[in-house]
Amino acid sequence: MEIIPNSNDLLQYYLYRGSKTKQFKIRKILYYFIIPIMVIFYGVYNFCITDDNLYLIIFTIIGVLAFILLPKYLKNSYERHYKNFINNNFGNLINKNEIIEIMDDKIINKNSISESNINISEIKYLIELKNNYLISINGAVSLILPKNIESKNIVEIIKQKNNLNIVDDTKWKW
């Protein structure tokens, strides 16, 4: 199977992987809820101490704005980070042919720089996203296949040979 990796596929992979980390989940709770609630609480606290409505109004407005804007900021900062990471580390592989073949119990991945042999028995996860399949060798390394008939056949072969389930994350979105 011949594929041409693009930066959008890599970006979706890294955003997906990043969204599953503990650090991202903690930041999400912090940016979505804790910071806005703390700002509003500070306004209520100052109102109780000074009896001045101005503190309550200002900090409530800031809290509501934080509730609206901080989640967007978090998502944009992750996207910028991963786009820079992809451009710096994979710029020479993007939009260049890559060949993926399945031999008896190995997957051979060839690109313009290297060739790798992956034992099918080393594959830990098969993940189906909306536009891609992720073949995860371990937590850090994955093959990204665009969804088509050939890639579905490859995933089915791996599934049967390694007795794995396909994790259905087609509803995942960034």
What's the quick description here?
With 174 residues, the protein is α+β, with helices and mostly antiparallel strands. It is 54% helix and 20% strand.
What does this protein look like?
With 174 residues, the chain is α+β, with helices and mostly antiparallel strands. The chain has 2 domains: 2-90, no CATH class; 98-168, PH-domain like, CATH 2.30.29.30. The protein is 54% helix and 20% strand. The strands form 2 sheets. The chain has a 4-stranded antiparallel β-sheet with strand order 1-2-3-4, with no helix packed on it. It has a 4-stranded mixed β-sheet with strand order 7-6-5-8, sandwiched between helices. Helix 1 (7-19) packs across helix 3 and helix 2 (22-50) packs antiparallel against helix 3. The longest helix has 38 residues, at 53-90. The two termini are 28 Å apart.
State the separation between the terminal residues, measured CA to CA.
28 Å
Mean pLDDT, to the nearest integer, reads 90
H/E series: EHHHEEEEEEHE
Count of discrete structural domains: 2
Proportion of beta-strand residues: 15-25%
List the SSEs and their pairings:
Blueprint: E1 2-3, H1 7-19, H2 22-50, H3 53-90, E2 98-103, E3 106-110, E4 115-119, E5 125-128, E6 132-136, E7 142-146, H4 149-162, E8 166-168
Parallel strand pairs: 5-8
Antiparallel strand pairs: 1-2, 2-3, 3-4, 5-6, 6-7
